[in-house]
Specification:
704 residues, alpha+beta, PUA domain-like, Beta-clip-like, eight-stranded mixed beta sheet, six-stranded mixed beta sheet, nucleus, zinc ion binding
Amino acid sequence: MGSLIPVEDLNLHLGPSSSISASVRDPLAPSSSVSASIRNPLIIPKKEPKLEPLDDLLDEPPVAHYRTPLPFYLNTSNNLNSSSTFTVTPSPTTPITPATPSPTANNQEPVTSSSNDSSNVYSEFYRLTELFRNAFAEGGERNGEGAEFEDSDISRAIVPFNSENENQLLNAVVSRRKYSQRSAELVRVTDLSADDVQYFRNLVRKTRMLYDAIRVLAIAEDEKHRGDLVPHRRTRGDLKAAALLRQRGLWLNRDKRIVGAIPGVEIGDLFFFRMELCVIGLHGQAQAGIDYLSASQSSNGEPIATSVIVSGGYEDDVDTGDEIIYTGHGGQDKHNRQCMNQKLECGNLALERSMYYGIEVRVIRGFKYEGSVSGKVYVYDGLYRVVTCWFDVGKSGFGVFKYKLVRIENQPEMGSSVLRLAQTLRTRPLEARPKGYVSLDLSMKKENVPVFLFNDVDNNNEPVFFEYLLSTVFPPHVYNHGKNGTGCDCIGGCLDGCFCAAKNGGDFAYEQNGILLKGKPVIFECGPHCRCPSTCRNRVSQRGVRNRLEVFRSRETGWGVRSLDLIQAGAFICEFTGVVLTREQAQIFTMNGDSLVYPSRFPDRWAEWGDLTDIFPDYKRPEHPSIPPLDFAMDVSRLRNVACYISHSSNPNALVQPVLYDHNNVSFPHLMLFAMENIPPLREISLDYGIADEWTGKLPICDK
């Protein structure tokens, strides 16, 4: 692999700007008005931006700017794959001649700031004024997200995890500390190889999986204290997870301020919390809707916008998909009503400067959505360009800055459009897709929700000829193994410390909403001999499918499975069913040329869910309850369910978790599928089948 190409900081290519008044104007205004505004330029007072979330002031001098930045390959703190070959370049659309390096450039000598003590005092004054104003929501932050940090005291972040070997609950306390701000170096990552794309995708997935695991564990710990007599402050799991990851240095893209697409983040990716956007580096502001490099960090003293969140928080916003009329921030009261004129400063000025230099911005849309744990979702919709901006009178009679954003062509379909299509398909499938549906319920009403069959590729309708199998069929001798007559006595629902919790090592495998807390070699759910109701928190997988799934014909994988609902990370998807055969029976079937599913070939992906190795170096994956190697096969030649059509991927978004509930024979568990990440509607579900799937004849799904 070749070495990385060192490039100059994009800020060094941003030459002296023209008059702001000449750039920010009504697109319909005559050119004479432009010259008039140049003769009377608008004087913009300097104003320091609000600190980043979880940032504290550093007791160190201001960051020095280098005339020639340190070569990228010499930066040991970056998150990029050091063995990869790709290009990090400044914006090719910047219409400014690169600055000539000084004679001392090769020695990397910093250029000291010329600001004196007086300017520092004014800078601190403006910063404190901004913090005070935001605290009382007089000016209003963009999109009205001020309540996002009501419980941001990270010194109270306590995240529990089980040590399966010692059966103890250890507490990880996140202490308040000082963090450096994000890098001021603007870069664009291009020319990624296939290996680089997969590397970054895996890095983002692993970070998000860790974030979700910590968040769920923090909420589960909070649930244990809700019955305490002593008042207990409710935990914000999203903030606790972000704080712990930041303390361990696991936030991504902190060493570079990336312009354009973030490596490893795909269009259509969904997020439930603003803090998750900060952790990934997609949008660095937990409250403000405009993320930008501030003027104080920029080499030429001009702010540059990198991303915006469109969530309908401003009454003058107009969103038609490919085009957005985006209203600047500021001037709102605590009820999100415009109460004063906006000013061309901070994020507003940064958007105008991005328009001037032709720098694209990332657009994330936020809106309420059914199935989200936070009540809303944030979906990444791709790159847009700011083509024009002007000052106008808003609906409330106050002056607002408006920006026209146009989506760059030749990008994948917007994730927000896919979400709207999925909403229609759930209730009116034939209206959204008049052609292609073979069956509106492949399960013949055996599942709780219908399973659609869709084929707009060819005339192959093979799935309708198989009998739908709701649950795995085990040999009779399996039910005669062990003590089948034991169960818990929890009449109203299982509580901590009951018999079934003890079988799982002392703690339940699921939180109250049925989300898998941590993968285990096997999970013991409550069975037919337990006195708890069917709604018990320890009966998650046996309650059946709850998301509307669709089997569809694919040109790449033959058949595939996708959901019409949003599937949360850690949520149950379905069971992989079939008729269980012993080793002797399987050998007879293979002699006749029949193909079988071998559960022993599924890798232990369950160990990745809840893996806290990156947080606690001495963490050990769960080893109890233990089960022997799975020495049986499953025949799906005549009886099968929707899981049989899930495609293979070496980087899957679903895992196989062994579960027992209707018998105690650990050699024959049910194979339950759980989501490893947030799976958006209409995104294909994939499994890692391990060894080449010669028993299904299915082509591997593309790694995405």
